[in-house]
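Priority: medium. Attachment 1 of 2:
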């Protein structure tokens, strides 16, 4: 508390006016502020997941946010100081995750209505999986300083959603089964094609044979 008073140039009475319960109440207020920033830094993309371009823009916003943050996570540090098992800290994190998942689930529902994501996917569970994958990437970033795991998690999550699109199964051209191929329906090798086989023209038998009616050598001789 003394450090906070020194940095903010406030008196103890002022601090206790706003935070009568002391240190824990103050830390919870800061934790809520940091939790709000987690979502605010993803806007407006997070609130408008209405196209694949929008999903990719959100992905880029998430990566940019955590790349800038680096290995230091203020929210994680605050929750650690409060104690992860305390009701106040759990409430802050639970509310953050619920709001985050709700935004993503709304995007999934929108894309399902547009026919871009399979209706078989449960939006709430899908959103929970995406947030869990994102948080896993963030933890690895904090441990290693590398954003690659976070990028892979988001890329695979969005790729999974795109692969579920009904459009990929119904509107995309299937292999063209009526195209000429080997067999009876195509002019290829076999009985229906004028190629090798029984229906192909045989050697031309009507061509003229060697001319047999030509005059033989003249055998009539004259005697003296």
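Attachment 2 of 2:
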């Amino acid at each position: 508390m003394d450090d906070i008073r020194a940095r903010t140039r406030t008196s103890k009475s002022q601090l206790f006016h706003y935070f009568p319960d002391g240190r824990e109440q103050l830390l919870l207020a800061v934790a809520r502020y940091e939790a709000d920033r987690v979502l605010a830094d993803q806007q407006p993309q997070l609130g408008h997941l209405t196209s694949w371009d929008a999903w990719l823009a959100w992905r880029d916003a998430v990566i940019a946010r955590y790349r800038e943050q680096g290995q230091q996570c203020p929210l994680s540090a605050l929750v650690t100081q409060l104690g992860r098992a305390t009701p106040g800290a759990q409430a802050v994190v639970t509310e953050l995750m619920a709001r985050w998942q709700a935004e993503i689930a709304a995007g999934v529902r929108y894309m399902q209505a547009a026919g871009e994501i399979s209706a078989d996917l449960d939006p709430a569970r899908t959103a929970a999986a995406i947030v869990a994958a994102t948080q896993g990437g963030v933890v690895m970033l904090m441990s290693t300083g590398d954003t690659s795991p976070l990028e892979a998690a988001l890329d695979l999550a969005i790729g999974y959603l795109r692969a579920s699109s009904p459009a990929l199964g119904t509107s995309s051209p299937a292999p063209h089964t009526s195209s000429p191929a080997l067999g009876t329906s195509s002019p290829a090798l076999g009985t229906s094609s004028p190629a090798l086989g029984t229906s192909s023209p045989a050697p031309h038998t009507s061509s003229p044979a060697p001319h047999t009616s030509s005059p033989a050598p003249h055998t009539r001789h004259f005697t003296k």
